[in-house]
Amino acid sequence: MTRLLDISVSGALLVTGIALFAMTFGDAFDVPTFGGDVGPAFAPRIFLTIWIVLSGVTLMHAVRSAETEESEVKLAQMITLVAVVCATGFAITKIGFVLATIPGFAAFCWTFQYRKPVPLVALSVLAPLAIWALFTFGFELLLPRSPWFHQI
Question: Is residue 22 domain-shared with residue 53, that is, in the same domain?
Answer without folding.
Answer: yes
